[in-house]
Amino acid sequence: MNQKTIAAIDIGTNSIHMVVVQIEPSLPSFTVIAKEKDTVRLGDRDPATGKLTPEAIKRSLDTLRRCQELAVSLEAEQIIAVATSATREAPNGESFLRQVESELGITVDLISGREEARRIYLGVLSGMDFNEQPHIIIDIGGGSTEIILADLHEPRFLSSTKIGAVRLSKEFVTTDPISDSELKVLRAYVRGMLERPVDEIWQNLQLNEIPRTIGTSGTIETIAEIHAKDELGSVPDPLNGYKISYEDIEKIVKRLAKMSYQERLDVSGLADKRAEIIVPGAVILLEAM
Questions:
Q1: Could you write out the DSSP letters of every residue in 70-85?
Q2: Which residues contact 177 (CB under 8 A, 6 or more apart)?
Q3: In angstroms, rounded to a whole number, what is the distance separating the alpha carbons of residues 261 and 264?
Q4: Residue 281 burial by Cβ neighbours in a 10 Å radius (0-12, 13-18, 19+)
Q5: Residue 24: CB partners within 8 Å, gap ≥ 6?
Q6: How far apart (Å, rounded) are the C-alpha atoms in residues 27 and 149?
Q7: Is the pLDDT of residue 264 over 90?
Q8: Cα angle vertex 77, ends 73, 82, to 5°?
Q9: Is pTM, for the whole model, over 0.85?
């Protein structure tokens, strides 16, 4: 048999995800046997100190304990965990990770933005056929956005920019629904922040290459779900390979930006925690495209 069961945990700015997989080393391939996700909002840091708050730490520890119990019940031989943007930037990020280790025995690897981008590339590569075409991968997190130019053989350019759906909500959105002036400032800021990575992508493309753009992450999945409900009446399962145009995303951003938080809660496909941060997240996608 020689199969191995491994759990992988991602401690993000907005949420904690875990997948438990069964690995078939002879192929090599893996099968996902369980998934767990919880919105913990580690990115809701103390405005004065930038520290992770006691509430966010407690939410995270509770979720990690649940993840660990699930992994153990599925007889996972190993739990691999990484932490990203919110933990990286918080003055007490490392002490939070020490607390995770002492209370749960889980060792967490604090990874850089570039390493996060590299792992996103490997994740997409494992689930999609690149053929010989270059791909631009956009991953919108709570605290950062990774943009990657890659082909079947290697990542040509990896970037991580400090714009994320939770971060921008906290820094730029004070009105509900978002006012035209705040939306304008938000879009201009995002565009400015993305200028460098986008320039680098163009410099790393050959003249005759036409890249394909792939979106990953909860924000982009939610936008695709809203679009699918509007266009098809239901959401395809899996969403892998679902196509959506720039024009359609622009329409969705305009529609969501006119709504209050309460009104967004009624949009099919939008969970309550996602409804709080979907407008900045969608703006990042629009500007990146």
A1: HHHHTT-SEEEEEE-H
A2: 257, 258, 259, 260, 263
A3: 5
A4: buried
A5: 3, 30, 31
A6: 27
A7: yes
A8: 95
A9: yes
